[in-house]
Amino acid sequence: MNIDEIHKTIENLSGEQGFLEYGSAPYRKMIPEIDRLRLYLDKSYNAGMDYMARNVELRADPELLLKGTKSIMCFLAPYKPAHEQMVGVPKIASYAYGLDYHRVVKDKLYAIVEKLKPLMPNLKARVFVDSAPVMEREWAREAGLGFIGKNNFLISKKYGLHTFIGIILINQKLKYTSDNIRNGCGNCNLCIEACPTGALGAPFSLDARKCISYQTIESKCGHYTEEFQINLNNSIFGCDICLKACPWAAKGEATTWQEFNPVYSEQHNKHIIDFSREDWEALNNGDFLEIFNESPMKRAGIIKIQDNL
Question: What angle do CA 297, 302, 308 make, to 5 degrees?
Answer without folding.
Answer: 90
